[in-house]
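Archive entry: two folds, one per protein. Generate the first.
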Amino acid sequence: MSHINKPDYAGGSIVNLMSSIASALGADATDVPQSKLLPANQLSSARNIIFIVVDGLGYNYLTSYGKDSIFTDNLQGSLTSVFPTTTASAITSYFTCLTPLQHGLTGWYMYLKEMNDIVTVLPFKPRGSPVWKRLDKRYQEVLYNFQSVFDMIKVPSYIVTQKNIVDSVYSLAVSGNADRLAYQELEEMFVQIKNTISLPDDQKFIYSYWSGFDAVSHHYGSRSTEALSTFRAFENSFDKFIRDIKGTNSTVIVSADHGFIDTEPSRVIRLEDHPDLQDTLVLPLCGEPRVIYCYVDDTKKVQFENYIKKEFADYCQMYKSEELVRQGYFGTGKPCPGFADRIGDYVLIMKENYVLKDTLPTEQPFTQIGVHGGLSDDELYVPLIKFEV
């Protein structure tokens, strides 16, 4: 296998950070080691542990564009995300203290053999469905077959998240016994956290999620002026928040689920432009535009491999899916039931800032400037920031 970046599940990834937090809050030991940068014994004395996930905030972005920010003054170092570097996989690792191999959410588009359909795992609907409808409830237990970290810890817990997702099927599946609190604007998020800090619990855990930076980065690019102004707005609000909660015996941790890489039209490869490749596939593309799971006709695997080697050599690296599992890219531990069915026969990991996309007849083609899912430094590494107030 030629060299590509790899998540560090042995103590340097976001899953290990969650293991430290859970252990500090009384959870039984899991088979995921604690974070080397932030072991549990550095957390257990805080009355409030507040964990804020800034969707899309990469370590390289922070150290390039936030050199003079409050965050770099409290930067502990970098962590790797999980593989693939995407919200569905990474946030689920935060919510479960499991690697993607164990929790089984392998990307935005995932083939679920149990229902013979491709689903979008966060909104929980069939891919290409013209109606934004929730899938049948019986499939929720198949897809979300794990224990929530909020049911493992021994203190009251709270989730502060956006109003449009606070009661989603996914949120309900991963939130366990936590109280869910909604907000709409960024300032309201910090108000909710402050109000929760003031509750009389002996010790508590507050998890908060903000997707504003991710949304702007997808649309305009992570290196855009729009993304930078969004980051600055978050920084200013956060700075005020930290000053407001001084003296509350709180440890505030800030990290992310993934970083970003920006692409351009010339780097977007359309499957429809490669009919001979399309002919080898038995399902639409799954996973992410930067990490693609290919389900290949058994009689056309040689044709598939030859086409990728000849036509896509500059665009991607090709791996048999089982090889990436064996090498530990998806994580350690026992695979969830049916994991192999969720990653196809081959995985294409895009090089540089290339993406590969297909469009179903029921879908409108769309492009994003900021993308993630792959294993570039910009996508894989996220910051670990800690404040004690």
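Generate the second and append.
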Amino acid sequence: MNLCFIIGKIISEIKFEFLLNSKNTSIVIFQIELDNKSIIEVKTYNEIADKCYQKLTKADRIAIQGKINSNMEIIMQDFDYLF
């Protein structure tokens, strides 16, 4: 199983889109910067995408649970705020 836990700061705008002709109905895409200054693209779908779009903003610091895909992007499964 490919499971990862990442902590970082959102450095881009939260981009929300609806998907047509797909098993997923919506997607959110944003970038986070890790403590070591690495930048990673994060994607999430459906209910979690809706929750991210409603709750997250640029500069939020979050902890992400997800999977790394073949393009070295994180497919987020859950998140939590860090203060």
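Annotation attached to the second fold: The chain has a mean pLDDT of 92. The beta strands are 4-10, 15-18, 26-33, 39-45, 61-68, 74-81.
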